[in-house]
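Bench notes, afternoon.
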Amino acid sequence: MQATPSAPVLADAADVLGDQLRTQLSDLALFVSPHTPLLERRFHRLLAGRFDPSQRKALCEITPGAAMKRLAAGRHPADFFEQVAYSGRRLAKLNIPPGEIVKALREYDTLLDPLLKRLLPDRHREFQWVRDQLQFCVLLTLNNAFYQVREEESRAFFELFRAEFEAASLGDMLDRFLKILVRTFRASAGRLILVAAEPNGTAEWRRKVARPLFLEAVDSRNGLVLDAELAKGGFASYWSIPHFAHGKLAAVVQFGFPTRYRWLPRELQLLDAAGERFLLAAEKARLIEDLKARETQVRKLSEHLLRVEEEERRRISRELHDEAGQAMLCIRLQLEMIEKTLPGELKQVRESLAATREVTEGVIVEIRRIISDLSPAVLEQLGLASALKQLARRFRSYSPAKIKLQVTGVMLSGEARLNRETEIVTYRLVQECLNNVAKHSSATTVNIRLRSTDSLVVLSVKDDGVGFDPAVAAKKPNSFGLAGIRERVGLLGGKLTVASRPGKGTNISIELPIRK
């Protein structure tokens, strides 16, 4: 895998190297190039105790001797700076600090300087200026190369963070992570394999891939490349990087490369950091998905409980109507008949029976009200609009506030009705709002507006009462009015807005999606 040369780096070096300087560099190369093999051997001995062979090789590619060798062979100076840019990126990925590189170049000068004094005593000062300009261009190119490596790393981590936040699911996030890593390391293909825990934990392949592996084409046939499609891809080399969570192998990332390319220390560190990032993100995504699943279960349970509640309301309503209601009617009729058959001289008894009959009639009226509240027959028979009108009339009977009801929309007043669940929830919401107004608001006017669109039912209940602070009300332990409204709205996936201030009245706005 070859690094892509950076045009801005070469342009900067070319700007510094004028025609005169290039000519003098070519002259200097004629004198120095025969001695570059000896200088390189001595330079290697100086570096041997501090740098490994790959680091020493990269350092030798950026020395003045490397420049002289290329210029003496008739190559353009830009070719040397392209080599410096490539070697600079390798040095950055080999984790060599810039200060150590500058120190190594100065050590090379201690070897080159005596040679030039001996070979060119008369032109030594002239060529010193040429060497200074060359070193300046080298350092400028190295600085740009280091910056490019750090910028690529930063961009990769930024993209990983963005993928974590933008992904729609765990699978989507892992796919995004893998694409970012493949692009960052210039691989041809990659696979991310999540390792499931095994009961015995004795799988042989698990032990083999539990450390970073550089694999060649022949290794793709021995089971170390875990993905069959990646193994058959005809790649020249592979990287296999394990990632651990809580001390156990959790995932393996493998890449395929068209050439034989070993990772550099900085690349391995970046992979380890990225692996830690995606394992944490995967754990977070799993928790979020588990939470969503639990929320769905709770919502379904709540919906079921509401349905059970409505069924229970209807059952109690039927029982009251068929049993208690009918029994009270019989009692009233019996009292009326007894009252009529009593002799005239039993006036006191007749008055007592009349009073008892009136109480019974009051109980019958109350039972009918309870039956209507529990399960309004008009809602099932005539629809939501008629049920709300009945609710408004009943509100006028027990509250001094003036109420205005406005209902618009084909699905609220026409033949095409809303589904049963939405009708019941909307009715209960208006019922709860009116109960709250009657109990707490001291309002003089109440405006209810209900309208429907193709996809929404929009409800607004506004009063001019005493108002309240919604944040304070939400914290009251025994306040269930708003909590009940919020729960019913949430079960249908709706939106609730409560606008209220002390002394400024209250406006409750609700949007419910229409379920087809």
